[in-house]
Amino acid sequence: MAESGGQEGGGNGVHAGEEDGGEVQGGELLFCGNADWALKKGDSRSDDRSEKFPFILEPSRLASMKGIKIVHVAAGCVSSHCVAVDVDGRCFTWGKNDTGQLGLGDTLQRNVPVHVSGLSSKIKVIKAAAGRHHTVVVGSDGSSYSFGQNKHGQLGTGSIKGEMEVSPVKALVQDAFDVACGGEFTLWLTDVSLLSAGLPQYGQLGHGTDHEYNNASGTVKLVYEPQPLPRAISTLQGKKIVKAACGINHSVVVDSEGFVYTWGFGGHGRLGHREQKDEWKPRMLDVFKGGNKVPSNGVVGAGGAFSAASAAGGQLYTWGRVKMTGDSIMYPKALMTISGWTIRSLDCGSMTTLAAAESSCISWGTAQYGELGYGANGPKSSALPKKIDSLEGMHVHKVAAGVSHSLFIVDVKGNGKEMIEKLPVFESKAGEAVTDGSEHEVKGGGKRKAGGAPAGPAKGAGRGRGKRPAIGKDKPVLKSHGADVAGEKTNDKGVHDEDGHGDEEAAAKKPGPLRVLGRAGVNSPPASGRGRGRGRGAAAAGRGAGRGRGRGSKKQGDSESEEPSSDDDSPESDSDGDDTYTGSAAKKKFGTVGLRPAASGEGLLAGAAAKGSGRGRGRGRGRGKRGK
Question: Which residues pair with 398 in a beta bridge?
Fold first, then answer.
């Protein structure tokens, strides 16, 4: 995720630095990667879908943004939406919008950039950042507004009364000059302090605690108390933080003297302290001291499970899980393949890195959708930094790396305009979204592994399927002003906090309620079902098995229940896990729910039939017949 800071950086909202101390005058917005915002990991793509929502394999102009001078772009290593800011301080958003993270007053997906009109009367936007399901912007007057999911307090409004804000709301922050977002938390940079709010798990807010407690029912489930009020990180009091980058569950910041601090989840060495333990307070990195501090024009970045920063002489260092194969790097290590380059902007995606340097743009990492920009004849991925040929000779002001897409701001002055005219122009089918039918998913909770990643992805509730009365085969699609959704109803209650790369790297999720993607306009009679499931999954020392039973009823329009595997919001990133209703709460909400202990290493597992609740560690399946 892109860095924040007065100079350039990489991390969650690309906060590229000002060139030679002067302001960037704006440039053309380019895009590459996945344009199929409804795509989830494992989805198949029909020829029709591939034509409407292609993978854009090289940086391309967006037809709707031609001629608009962009000064800032933001994406997140776990987000499936984008933010762009123009020279007039107008904010544009597009992409996934299931929790209102686009700030457009609804939850309809947008396939092309749309002006966030609700901000125009409030502030002139200068910076923005994107989390998993939320967006935060900062205005020229130091105020901040946010929108999207707020169940962990990540919007910084001081309250979680509204779990979702589809229009901009004011954050309780003053005198901010920049912002960075993690998966479910936010950092605000001010002249006197660094503020944080949101989900405190892994100590990622930097306040010395993870605010973990047992829920009132006395079950095994642990809860992390939301922190909706932005609070100064006391460890950094008296230091002016000038750059900040957030990964999914960790942060990297630089103070005005060039010292680097990291904290949060420590798996795979992403904090750079030669160990994998979590840090609940900012801890200084010993590599960036003395003559090796980060200069004022340096960059920092944070990806899904890795980090980066440039030191004296422009040397770029990386650490953490920088590639899918091989060992993780436990401490900052110089990346010699791009030694000597002057990097003006850097950003880190889930497993990709973008760097704008001199008259080139460089990318590397593991990719599937063309987000590295190498073109149809180039490789999908690259373990080593490689130039993007179509941008060679251009002056790229800023870059932003999302979960499966990339953004660039390219200079249009001089011969830049002529070179840009040669680039492809992408015109999205703005009014069409894809749905794969109804779903009904139950999230499960997981236990932390010993090896450095949260247990992955906390798969726990059984699967139940039932037969519904025949209602026709057409998949419902709702269309509205160029943004379509499949009749979707979401009740997110969860926590998900890791890289989203399969079971090994998925989040340690809190178990939780049902996500229903129902059929639109369907009147099905009530039905009930019963299912049994067996679970399997990793524990600290091995594998175990669990059994569970569940009972529930399906109501009109409800869809099938699924096992709580990764409810992917995007091709590369798991969406959040959800709070589980257990004991009396489950009985009140769903009817009778039976719980029994699982085998060694697994804990409890509740299988849900048709509609139910589940919690546990492991993966379970069960099938049951729907009533008629």
Answer: 409
Please give the Cα distance from 320 to 272 (Å, whole number).
Answer: 7
Average pLDDT over residues 38-59: 83
Distance CA 533, CA 565 (A): 14
For the full predicted model, state whether its pTM sits above 0.90: no
Environment class of residue 128 by beta-carbon count within 10 Å: exposed (0-12), middle (13-18) or buried (19+)? buried
The answer to whether residues 364 and 371 touch, using CB atoms and an 8 Å cutoff, is no
Cα–Cα distance, 145 to 135 (Å, whole number): 9
Q: DSSP string spanning 235-290? A: GGTTS-EEEEEE-SSEEEEEETTS-EEEEE--GGGTT-SSS---EEEEEE-TTS-G
> Quick one: which of 64, 575, 67, 1 has its CA closest to 244?
1
* Mean per-residue pLDDT, 326-347: 95
- Cα 257 to Cα 254: distance, rounded to the nearest angstrom: 8
- Cα 76 to Cα 180: distance, rounded to the nearest angstrom: 9
Report the run of H or E that residue 227 belongs to, with start and end: strand 227-232
pLDDT digits (tens, 9 = 90+) for 539-591: 333 333 334 443 333 333 333 333 333 344 455 444 343 343 333 443 343 33
Q: What is the pLDDT of residues 516-536, one digit of tens each?
A: 333 333 333 333 444 444 444
Distance CA 620, CA 461 (A): 6
Pairwise pLDDT comparison (613 vs 269), residue with the higher score: 269
Residue corresponding to tokens 């991390």? 11
What is the secondary structure of 304-315 as a DSSP string? Answer: SSEEEEE-GGG-
What's the Rg (C-alpha) of the chain? 23
CA 326 to chain centre: 24
The string of pLDDT tens digits covering residues 170-209 is 999 999 999 999 999 999 999 999 999 999 999 999 999 9
Residue 344 structure tokens? 């003006």
Answer whether 390's CB lies under 8 Å from 423's CB: yes
List all residues 6 or more positions away from 29 whose beta carbon is below 8 Å from its beta carbon. 61, 62, 65, 68, 70, 73, 84, 113, 407, 408, 409
User: What is the residue-wise DSSP string for 154-197?
Assistant: TT-SS--SSSEEEEEEE-S--SEEEEEE-SSEEEEEESS-EEEE
Domains and CATH numbers, the chain: 3-18+54-426 (2.130.10.30), 431-628 (no CATH)
What would the DSSP string read from start to end of 449-507? PSSSS--STT---B----------SPPP-EEETTEEE-S-B--------S--SHHHH--
Give the pLDDT confidence of 367-413 residue by residue, as tens digits. 999 999 999 999 999 999 999 999 999 999 999 999 999 999 999 88
